């Protein structure tokens, strides 16, 4: 048969308006694409480029193949254009500030006059002086302000599928460098415009590929079409499906780290962040409405209104609709709005999403993609003009505030944050690095020091405490006071009127004023023990220096140890097992020779590995790779009851063979967070499975399967396949919504609260058994030693007569009522079973980021490794009922650590399990109520998941699947 081919129309992603010219075939036998009918509603009458331009600058359509804004430019096209313009124009200084995970460059273009560009180092030096004005004379400050140009940072499309911003950036750059316009020339003489045109190149690449794959011959204006909606994992996030607009102080992504490093150099006066929102909306810009973080300086609210007035006038001139505030609140400090805490006026753009072609709105009008781009372009120019007119006054406000927050009259005076010493090197050094990346000063105590007015993370107050040597100190009164307090204060202040409206909404329709989490304290997210201190600590302090890394000897030992306190110990074990090295884990704290270690310590014995001639090299390389202290094991005998080298406490591990389940129905954010954790923390080989293909997959190739949070139901056939696999020795780990599906599918005896409330007494009995088993003293020693049968036994699950609690019918009503009040991202106190292998590396109390997650009810058939609520001693209180459970006499329970937690929700979540484990056949099922890995920041709960993945096959499965 004769073969023919058509010209690949969609390889070049021709816009629908140009397809009429493209229907050509090489052979008369080839299939012919039909010419679409005319789409006059897609003709946008306004050009996005100026008429009078410098002919030496290449117009964007020469590279794109279409007028800028007519369709979505690919990352490759954007890269080509900005590099070309940097060569052609003397108004651009170009630099690459980061490389994405997929190897794509991120650019910053400084646009100004040649004179200003030549003086950029001097400009930055003056800006740095204004950012730290302490010790500078008022005349020097005023001189710098008069000499400095305005500085704007224009950033676009941090979400890759919110594409109009990056196309507007191209139009803006071209207008600034090519327009023959006296007003623009004059503006650039007194301004440096920093353009970050494409903040998420990997997400944009994924999005533009989806556009290519879903485009037909005719234009599409249906917002429900996959051309506009995209498909899993969509294009919003970066390579690891991280939301880069939540990463500005957790700094997990290379895109963010590079960006923040440059913002540190520039301290821009204005920061624009171009986004998109729902397609049937209009255009939103700042200022925000309440709740507003109280650490944002008041001057930013003033300037926000001034910029909004000018931007609104520009939209009115074009007869465009828009709004401010409404859903846009400003409580969480981790968006790009973090620049407000650094001194910038931050303006969010939210353009109604159009993707390509256009969107037919509810009123029948078609909004074209080009119009969407035009909205962002006009907004950008309007904001630049406002900055030009107000730059000097904004500099003076900036300096005044920077002087205030570091002065004796600072609102942050007499306050500091202390992180107590820990053997968890990896976590502590990560914490310090995050602060230092934001120019926050970090100190360390050189000697024990007494401090006053102390509050701990459970809200307990102390008039005085002795801090140990080595504690980390961050004094609140410093130049970056606003940012550091926003991320380190234990609770963000929310106004009473906001709380009242939030409560009303909760009861009326379940809606919320809050757009994101209400808790984000960095020490709690990282799982570090910290204190708020009511004084500045200036005695016995020095600049923080990391402890020197301990490197063990290569020869003349029985083996090596890595302390289980360090998160890096898990990676050390995983990487060695992947190389075939036999690794053991010590499940009890002890001492061998001079080495003192905690439970969960990883050891490699020479006697286990005679086949590895290069064992020492492998061990030392693994320790260096994960940056952990490596100790020599020179003695096998532990003192007294401490573990000995050949005893049962030295447990042999099994190498994990991991699969993570993804695709449609699974949260791409949670999937990406777990994937990123494995790749960045462990670096071991693993597989990604399609949720829809679980029944067809040969699960015998894996001994650990992780089900991330999912919105879809788990198919009964998939549940059956997983059940058979678990019973054969697999370790199944589920998270949040997946846990709900695992319970519904009969894979676990654990139940959600609503399903277990009928049998509340049974679960309360299990709870009391756990509580009594954790006691360290005998309360009934006299009865134990007595020869008489005691007449009265105190039953711990029977509450005081004055507080008998609710009957079964009342409990059902209580469960339904309290369900309305579940938190939206609060941090709760978790109490940790220190005997359980899943909690290696955890303190007694563990912060848990918790939202409307399933509440797990664990009875005697399962093990609750972590429960919600930490017991604190109060000898004055009797035993009493709290919802379904009983509180022991002499104990209070503390639940809220940070964020908004309604009292009804606090009672509801108390004593529910966060993490459970149970045996099933030869395998095991491990359930997480919440998401242990959030934004790469929740290192405390992340450690639980690492333990489950790496140690599960060896410690929890009685006969793990052999691979």
Automatic annotation (TrEMBL):
<dbReference type="Pfam" id="PF00246">
    <property type="entry name" value="Peptidase_M14"/>
</dbReference>
<dbReference type="InterPro" id="IPR000834">
    <property type="entry name" value="Peptidase_M14"/>
</dbReference>
<feature type="domain" description="Peptidase M14">
    <location>
        <begin position="71"/>
        <end position="369"/>
    </location>
</feature>
<dbReference type="GO" id="GO:0005615">
    <property type="term" value="C:extracellular space"/>
</dbReference>
<protein>
    <submittedName>
        <fullName>Peptidase</fullName>
    </submittedName>
</protein>
<dbReference type="InterPro" id="IPR029062">
    <property type="entry name" value="Class_I_gatase-like"/>
</dbReference>
<comment type="similarity">
    <text>Belongs to the peptidase M14 family.</text>
</comment>
<keyword id="KW-0645">Protease</keyword>
<feature type="active site" description="Proton donor/acceptor">
    <location>
        <position position="340"/>
    </location>
</feature>
<dbReference type="GO" id="GO:0008270">
    <property type="term" value="F:zinc ion binding"/>
</dbReference>
<keyword id="KW-0732">Signal</keyword>
<dbReference type="GO" id="GO:0006508">
    <property type="term" value="P:proteolysis"/>
</dbReference>
<feature type="signal peptide">
    <location>
        <begin position="1"/>
        <end position="30"/>
    </location>
</feature>
<keyword id="KW-0482">Metalloprotease</keyword>
<keyword id="KW-0862">Zinc</keyword>
<dbReference type="GO" id="GO:0004181">
    <property type="term" value="F:metallocarboxypeptidase activity"/>
</dbReference>
<keyword id="KW-0378">Hydrolase</keyword>
């Amino acid at each position: 048969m004769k073969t023919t081919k058509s010209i690949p129309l969609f390889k070049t992603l021709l816009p629908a308006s140009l397809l009429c010219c493209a229907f050509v075939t090489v052979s008369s036998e080839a299939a012919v694409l039909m010419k679409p009918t005319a789409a006059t509603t897609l003709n946008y009458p306004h050009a996005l480029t100026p008429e009078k331009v410098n002919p030496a600058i290449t117009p964007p359509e020469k590279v794109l193949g279409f007028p800028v804004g007519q369709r979505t430019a690919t990352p490759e096209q954007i890269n080509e254009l900005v590099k070309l313009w940097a060569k052609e124009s003397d108004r651009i200084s170009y630099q690459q500030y980061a490389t994405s995970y997929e190897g794509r460059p991120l650019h910053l273009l400084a646009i100004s006059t040649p004179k200003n560009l030549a003086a950029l180092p001097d400009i930055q030096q003056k800006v740095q002086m204004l950012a730290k004005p302490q010790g500078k004379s008022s005349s020097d400050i005023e001189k710098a302000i008069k000499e400095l140009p305005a500085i704007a940072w224009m950033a676009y499309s941090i979400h890759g599928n919110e594409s109009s911003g990056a196309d507007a950036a191209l139009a803006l750059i071209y207008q600034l460098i090519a327009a023959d316009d006296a007003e623009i020339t004059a503006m650039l003489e007194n301004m440096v415009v920093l353009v970050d045109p494409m903040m998420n190149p990997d997400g944009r690449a994924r999005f533009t590929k989806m556009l290519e794959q879903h485009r037909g011959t005719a234009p599409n204006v249906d917002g429900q079409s996959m051309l506009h909606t995209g498909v899993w994992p969509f294009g919003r996030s970066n390579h690891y499906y991280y939301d880069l607009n939540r990463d500005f102080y957790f700094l997990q992504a290379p895109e963010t780290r590079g960006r923040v490093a440059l913002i540190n150099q520039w301290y821009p006066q204005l920061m624009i962040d171009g986004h998109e929102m729902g397609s049937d909306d209009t255009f939103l810009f700042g200022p925000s409405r309440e709740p507003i973080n109280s650490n944002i300086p008041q001057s930013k609210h003033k300037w926000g209104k001034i910029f909004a007035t000018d931007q609104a006038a520009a939209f009115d001139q074009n007869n465009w609709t828009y709004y401010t505030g409404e859903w846009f609140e400003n409580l969480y400090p981790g968006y790009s709005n973090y620049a407000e805490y650094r001194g910038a006026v931050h303006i969010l753009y939210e353009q109604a999403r159009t993707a390509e072609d256009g969107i037919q709105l509810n009123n029948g009008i078609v909004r074209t993609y080009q119009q969407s781009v035009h909205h962002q372009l006009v907004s950008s120019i309007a904001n630049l003009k406002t900055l030009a007119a107000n730059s000097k006054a904004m500099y003076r406000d900036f300096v005044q505030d920077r002087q205030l927050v570091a002065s004796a009259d600072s609102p942050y005076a007499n306050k500091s944050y202390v992180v107590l010493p820990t053997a968890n090197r990896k976590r502590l050094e990560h914490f310090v690095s995050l602060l230092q990346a934001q120019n926050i000063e970090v100190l360390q105590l050189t000697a024990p020091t007494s401090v006053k007015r102390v509050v701990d993370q459970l809200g307990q107050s102390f008039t005085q405490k002795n801090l140990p040597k080595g504690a980390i100190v961050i004094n609140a009164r410093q130049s970056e006071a606003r940012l550091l307090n926003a991320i380190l204060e234990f609770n963000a202040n929310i106004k009473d009127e906001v709380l009242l409206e939030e409560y009303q909404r909760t009861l009326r329709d379940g809606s919320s004023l809050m757009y994101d989490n209400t808790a984000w304290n960095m020490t709690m997210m990282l799982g570090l023990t910290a204190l708020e201190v009511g004084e500045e600590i200036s005695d016995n302090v020095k600049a923080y220096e990391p402890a020197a890394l301990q490197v063990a000897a290569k020869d003349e030992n029985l083996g090596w140890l890595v302390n289980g306190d360090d998160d890096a110990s898990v990676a050390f074990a995983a990487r060695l097992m992947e190389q075939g090295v036999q690794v053991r884990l010590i499940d009890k704290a002890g001492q061998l020779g001079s080495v003192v270690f905690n439970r969960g310590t990883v050891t490699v014995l020479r006697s286990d590995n005679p086949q590895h001639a290069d064992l020492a090299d492998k061990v030392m390389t693994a320790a260096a790779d994960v940056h952990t202290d490596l100790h020599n094991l020179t003695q096998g005998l532990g003192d007294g009851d401490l573990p000995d080298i050949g005893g049962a406490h030295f447990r042999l591990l099994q190498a994990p063979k991991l699969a993570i389940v993804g695709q449609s129905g699974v949260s791409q954010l949670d999937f990406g967070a777990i994937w990123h954790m494995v790749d960045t923390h462990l670096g071991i080989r693993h597989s990604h499975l399609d949720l829809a293909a679980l029944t067809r997959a040969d699960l015998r190739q894996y001994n650990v399967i992780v089900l991330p949070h999912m919105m879809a139901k788990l198919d009964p056939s998939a549940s059956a396949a997983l059940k058979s696999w678990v019973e054969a020795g697999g370790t199944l780990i589920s998270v949040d919504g997946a846990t709900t599906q695992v319970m519904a599918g009969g894979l676990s005896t654990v139940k959600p609260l609503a399903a277990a409330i009928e049998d509340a007494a049974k679960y309360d009995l299990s709870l009391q058994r756990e509580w009594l088993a954790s006691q360290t003293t005998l309360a009934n020693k006299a009865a134990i030693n007595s020869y008489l049968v005691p007449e009265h036994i105190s039953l711990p699950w029977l509450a005081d007569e004055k507080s008998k609690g609710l009957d079964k019918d009342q409990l059902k009503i209580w469960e339904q009522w309290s369900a309305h009040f579940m938190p939206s991202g609060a941090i709760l106190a978790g109490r940790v079973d220190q005997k359980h292998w899943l909690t290696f590396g955890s303190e007694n109390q563990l912060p848990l980021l918790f939202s409307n997650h399933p509440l797990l009810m664990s009875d005697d058939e399962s093990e609750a490794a972590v429960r919600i609520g930490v017991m604190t001693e109060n000898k004055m209180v009797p035993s009493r009922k709290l919802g379904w459970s009983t509180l022991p006499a002499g104990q209070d329970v503390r639940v809220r650590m940070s964020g908004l937690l309604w009292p009804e929700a606090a009672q509801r979540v108390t004593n529910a399990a966060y993490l459970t484990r149970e045996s099933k056949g030869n395998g095991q099922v491990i359930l997480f109520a919440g998401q242990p890995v959030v934004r790469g920041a929740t290192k405390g709960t992340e450690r639980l998941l690492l333990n489950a993945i790496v140690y599960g096959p060896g410690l929890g499965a009685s006969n793990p699947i052999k691979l």
